[in-house]
């Protein structure tokens, strides 16, 4: 999926917005989005008019290359999350982008302001029937777990601790508690207070998401590994769960500047 940058520049918009993305979707006739819109009876002509009206309301006067708007970036992030975790798909498909727009509360509010036609698409119905609707499109690919690069002797996705039971999580995270149980994490010294604080926060009924901040090298990873060690050793009371995972990959959206 690409957006015509020349068209954007001629409009002198400051950002590449969701409306630009949706407008470009209408050019493809065999994409996920095209199949979904036909399935739910979206009128492409009316949608085009709605998007053009919304685009006409955007601020103009930019003489530089437009940037990706925060809302569009959020849509891509949500689409990637939904696709990789719930559908085992490693690419940001147009259908997943539509699903993200309609299922995320913040993005759905924006859609309601932009288009009545898109509101014909039921988010719950799309989620349940996504494969049946979109798998005939030209974006349909093999699941992420089967399509990832091989590691070691296997032909499937990346081989990591605990792989097989949760292939999508295993593809992007490392099971620190399993690593601790296998003795692959060194003892963590001098971090008892910070680890205790993490545990206390996790045991709260509300506001129970600990966030570790600080400059590189101050010991944030050590605190997390120390927490994983305590879980592996059975030293953490119930309520904190029994699994710590480390996310080892981020979403690289740099290539989207080619839009």
The averaged pLDDT comes out at 80
The CATH fourth-level homologous superfamily of the largest domain? Clp, N-terminal domain
Q: Structural class of the helix and strand makeup?
A: mainly alpha
- Give Rg in angstroms: 22 Å
- Note the main sheet: 2 strands, parallel
Instruction: Please give the share of residues in helix.
Output: 40-55%
Please provide the count of β strands.
4
Architecture overview:
With 259 residues, the protein is mainly alpha-helical. It folds into two domains: 15-140, Double Clp-N motif (Orthogonal Bundle); 171-258, Rossmann fold (3-Layer(aba) Sandwich). It is 48% helix and 4% strand. The chain has 13 helices and four strands. The strands form two sheets. The protein has a two-stranded parallel ribbon. Helix 5 crosses helix 6 (94-103), helix 6 (94-103) crosses helix 7 and helix 12 (192-202) packs across helix 13 (220-232). The model is unreliable at 142-164 and 249-259 (pLDDT under 50).
How are the elements arranged and paired?
Blueprint: H1 5-11, E1 15-16, H2 18-25, H3 32-39, H4 44-56, E2 67-68, H5 70-86, H6 94-103, H7 105-114, H8 123-134, H9 144-147, H10 167-172, E3 173-175, H11 176-181, H12 192-202, H13 220-232, E4 245-247
Parallel strand pairs: 1-2
Antiparallel strand pairs: 3-4
Helix pairs in contact: 2-4, 3-6, 3-8, 5-6, 6-7, 6-8, 12-13
Summarize the structure.
By secondary structure, the chain is mainly alpha-helical. It has 13 helices and four strands.
Keywords:
single chain; 259 residues; mainly alpha; Double Clp-N motif; Rossmann fold; two-stranded parallel sheet; 13 helices; 4 strands; elongated; disordered C terminus
